[in-house]
Amino acid sequence: MTWLRALAAAVLSVIMPGAGHALIRDWLRAIVFAGLYFSAMLYFFPIELVADATTMTDAMEVLSAETDTISQFVLSFLVLFATIDATFRAAGFPPTGNRSSDGPSCPQCGKELDDDLEFCHWCTTRLEPVESDADAQARDETPQP
Fold first, then answer.
1. Count of structural domains within the chain
2. Are 73 and 103 in the same domain?
3. If I label 61, which of 80, 99, 102, 121 is the partner at 20 to 30 A Cα–Cα?
4. pLDDT of 98 strictly over 50
């Protein structure tokens, strides 16, 4: 399922940089990539001319005529970089340092688990319910027939 998650992160990042990172719950990177993309659009796109266009066809003609090669390269580079980064992070590369966290980790992928779920939200491995020490002691003290 990791490859499916990586593919979904890639597709979302192509549509909107930062959306793939939001899928894998990497919120800081999602905000950074979306902010960079919107900032670059505000800086490089002729927003006033596009707003004055009466139809979508006119707006696309204005964008293609008024946007130079460097602007297109910068925006394409941001989309490509966000897509590659989200894809590799969703696939588990580079390995994150979640193994040293204080919370429980998944026995299959080793990433940190959400206590409210009965499965790993990273690799979808079903988890057995964790038995607390008090429950185990009560079970041991109960007489067996």
1. 2
2. no
3. 80
4. no
Same domain assignment for residues 89 and 102? no
Residue 117: closest CA among 129, 108, 109, 107: 129
Which amino acid type is present at position 134? A
Task: Judge if 32 and 87 occupy the same domain.
Answer: yes
Residue 106, domain extent = 97-140
Q: Does the pTM of the predicted model rise above 0.70?
A: no
Q: Is 86 exposed, middle or buried (0-12, 13-18, 19+ CB in 10 A)?
A: buried
Surface-to-core class of residue 69, CB atoms within 10 Å of its CB (0-12 exposed, 13-18 middle, 19+ buried): exposed
Contact 84, 93 (CB under 8 A): no
Encoded amino acid at 10, one letter: A
| pLDDT tens digit sequence for 6-20 | 999 999 999 999 999
